[in-house]
């Protein structure tokens, strides 16, 4: 794992074969730094979680690979559910404020975090964004993470639920290749099902692979672009907000 941004790299997944390596000292140093980064993040995440609880806000951490359709899912959700559920959004991208602009155009308040070289959001960034966003009590805060199937799963943001958006253009073996991310999800939204006639993707096989790594999580099949299957997703979000 990279000590700067938390992502996995070759050094970090280095397999120790029992021999002394010239970089042994560096490896040890890297591990300590990673532990410090994650411990520091855990403290900020605890603060965020307490902040949400005091206001009866429920927070979702939405993750996916780049281009799976997180923002499109949120835009339709805000347009169609906005009168029943108060939603505001923290957007994470390496650069640009394009996604926050899309969210605002759909009718919800949004704050954009630009992470620069970092491949994920961390709890400290989210805490600062909340000071600007100032979400209403008893509302829903959606945190759209940086598109990446590895690093974001390591960083607790203080959220109540983790949502993983996957799409039919990505291949049905993604749950097996990125098990940590799929295992960490409370719900998986399989997006772009309108493209199924045009791609070589078997949804049943995807679901079987997903169940191998995460049997209890919720599963939704949708087309955020066309609107298929969104009702079940809305019912789930409303049941989460109603249970507060
Ligand atoms: Mg996006």
Short description:
By secondary structure, the chain is an alpha/beta fold.
Secondary-structure class: alpha/beta
Compute the gyration radius: what is it? 19 Å
* Biggest sheet descriptor: 7 strands, parallel
Are there runs of 5+ residues with pLDDT below 50, and where?
1-25
- Percentage of residues in DSSP E strands: 15-25%
Name the helix and strand elements from N-terminus to C-terminus, one letter apiece: HEHEHEHEEHHEHEH
For the termini, the CA-CA separation is 37 Å
Work out the number of β strands: 7
Under the CATH scheme, which class?
Alpha Beta
Shape: globular
What do we call the CATH topology?
Answer: Rossmann fold
User: What is the number of independent domains?
Assistant: 1
CATH superfamily: P-loop containing nucleotide triphosphate hydrolases
Number of helices: 8
Q: How does this structure look, described?
A:
- This protein is α/β, with parallel strands linked by helices and 244 residues long.
- The protein has a single domain (28-242), classed as Rossmann fold (3-Layer(aba) Sandwich), CATH 3.40.50.300.
- The protein is 40% helix and 16% strand.
- It is built from eight helices and seven strands, in the order αβαβαβαββααβαβα.
- The longest helix has 31 residues, at 24-54.
- The model is unreliable at 1-25 (pLDDT under 50).
- The structure holds magnesium ion.
- Magnesium ion is lined by residues 70-71, 99, 144.
């Amino acid at each position: 794992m990279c000590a700067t941004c938390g992502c996995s790299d070759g050094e970090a997944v280095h397999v120790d074969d029992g021999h002394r390596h010239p970089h042994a000292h560096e490896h040890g140093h890297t591990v300590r730094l990673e532990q410090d980064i994650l411990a520091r993040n855990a403290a900020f995440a605890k603060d965020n979680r307490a902040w949400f609880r005091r206001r009866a806000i429920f927070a979702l951490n939405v993750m996916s690979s780049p281009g799976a359709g997180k923002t499109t899912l949120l835009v339709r959700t805000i347009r169609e559910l906005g009168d029943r559920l108060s939603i505001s959004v923290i957007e994470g991208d390496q650069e640009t404020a394009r996604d926050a602009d899309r969210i605002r155009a759909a009718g919800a308040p949004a704050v954009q975090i630009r992470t620069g070289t970092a491949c994920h959001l961390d709890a400290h960034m989210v805490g600062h964004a909340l000071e600007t966003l100032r979400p209403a009590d008893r509302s829903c805060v959606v945190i759209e993470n940086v598109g990446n199937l590895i690093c974001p799963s390591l960083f607790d943001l203080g959220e109540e639920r983790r949502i993983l958006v996957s799409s039919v253009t990505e291949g049905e073996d993604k749950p097996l290749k990125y098990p940590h991310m799929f295992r960490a999800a409370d719900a998986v939204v399989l997006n772009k099902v309108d493209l199924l006639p045009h791609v070589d993707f078997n949804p049943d096989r995807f679901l079987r692979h997903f169940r191998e790594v995460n049997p209890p999580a919720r599963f939704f099949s949708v087309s955020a672009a066309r609107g298929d299957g969104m009702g079940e997703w809305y019912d789930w979000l409303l049941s989460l907000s109603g249970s507060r």
